[in-house]
């Protein structure tokens, strides 16, 4: 069953038609890719799913529930988390605090509770601290808990970004070019990490990636965008040899890893 469904989604930036009539599904429990040349509209899809933009037309549903019209915060509550093309950690905060702050997306108490520091508030704080440590331990980052996030090696910063996204307990995790800027050894570890996250958290993963090694290695289904239109969909083997995909990439410098 498709956890995420886009139906006839279109989006325009001024005179630019960034997406035209895009319909696609992301199956629950799978790792699915969205690929395409630069400027094809991939990040725009993520920005529409997460409520950064509202599509001019179309429907975006998570487990059958409409997301269009909800604020980004509500969409996080519904179970969608993401990471960004360029790492967006709070680099001057500790590794632990990066994960702690993400929990506040799910916590509901007002300033009154915070000022009064009620017992319920302290219990919640303690629970968040314990869960944050637990999450760091699961991602193998606990020994860095009190270090500045910005001081971690690049691969670990990506790992922390994914850990932080998982703090909101998503059903769907969107990864925007997770392998960008990684060396081959880091890419290898990232591929293992993505599969491990899918299996151990039971989360569905939808990723944008230019590195074909990642896409072909861990994704069962690949959707291909070109100039805002879906031009192909299929398994790695089907997409690799699809004439429209070859045409879209040829001469545009498809980055093979
Ligand atoms: N906020 C914006 N305002 C105007 N145009 C935009 C905006 N965001 C994206 N675009 C344009 O929309 C098109 C699709 O952009 P998008 O970032 O979704 O592509 P992409 O496939 O993610 O590209 P890349 O692989 O380079 O990240 C591009 O032509 C881009 O210049």
UniProtKB/TrEMBL annotation:
Question: Which PROSITE patterns does the UniProt entry name for this protein?
Answer: ABC_TRANSPORTER_2
Tell me the superkingdom of the source.
Bacteria
UniProt keywords, alphabetically: ATP-binding, Nucleotide-binding, Transport
Q: Which GO terms describe its molecular function?
A: ATP binding; ATP hydrolysis activity; L-isoleucine transmembrane transporter activity; L-phenylalanine transmembrane transporter activity; L-valine transmembrane transporter activity
As given in the record, the signal peptide range reads none
The protein's matches in CDD domains, at most eight in alphabetical order, are given as: ABC_Mj1267_LivG_branched
Q: What is this protein called?
A: Leucine/isoleucine/valine transporter ATP-binding subunit
Query: Ranges for the ABC transporter domain?
Result: 4-252
Q: Which SUPFAM superfamilies match?
A: P-loop containing nucleoside triphosphate hydrolases
Q: Name one Pfam family in it.
A: BCA_ABC_TP_C
């Amino acid at each position: 069953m498709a956890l995420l469904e886009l139906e006839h989604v279109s989006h325009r930036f001024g005179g630019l038609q960034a997406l035209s009539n895009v319909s696609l599904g992301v199956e629950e429990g799978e790792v699915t890719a969205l690929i395409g040349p630069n400027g094809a509209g991939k990040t725009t899809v993520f920005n529409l799913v997460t409520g950064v933009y509202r599509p001019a037309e179309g429907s975006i549903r998570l487990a059958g529930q409409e997301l269009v019209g909800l604020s980004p915060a509500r969409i996080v509550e519904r179970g969608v988390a993401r990471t960004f093309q360029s790492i967006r950690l709070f680099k001057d905060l500790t590794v632990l605090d990066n994960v702690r702050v993400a929990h506040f997306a799910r916590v509901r108490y007002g300033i009154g509770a915070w000022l009064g520091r009620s017992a319920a508030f302290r219990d919640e704080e303690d629970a968040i601290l314990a869960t944050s440590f637990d999450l760091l331990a699961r991602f193998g980052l606990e020994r860095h808990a009190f270090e500045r996030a910005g001081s971690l090696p690049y691969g670990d910063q990506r790992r922390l970004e994914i850990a932080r996204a998982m703090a909101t307990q998503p059903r769907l995790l969107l990864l925007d070019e997770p392998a960008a800027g990684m060396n081959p050894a880091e890419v290898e570890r990232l591929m293992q990490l993505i599969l491990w996250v899918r299996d151990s958290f039971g989360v569905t993963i939808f990723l944008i990636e230019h590195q074909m090694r990642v896409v072909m290695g861990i994704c069962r289904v690949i959707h291909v965008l070109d100039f805002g239109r879906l031009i192909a969909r299929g398994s790695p083997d089907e997409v690799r040899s699809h004439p429209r995909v070859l045409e879209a990439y040829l001469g545009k410098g498809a980055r093979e890893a």
